[in-house]
Amino acid sequence: MKKETLILASMTLLGMAFGYAYYRFYGCSEGCAITGNPWRSTLYFGILFFLGSTLIKDLITKKS
Length: 64
Description:
Blueprint: H1 2-26, H2 38-63
Helix pairs in contact: 1-2
């Protein structure tokens, strides 16, 4: 259980870093709901990576 929690937390942090990088390099300055604000972009990508990692974890555990 501890290993799974560590993987989920690290994937969420990776998603948050990716979200900030996306805002920094590709985000627009105004008018964009998600990429116009670094906090929203970071949170959005963190949630996406968390949900994606839980989906992958569930698929792997079903095969085992």
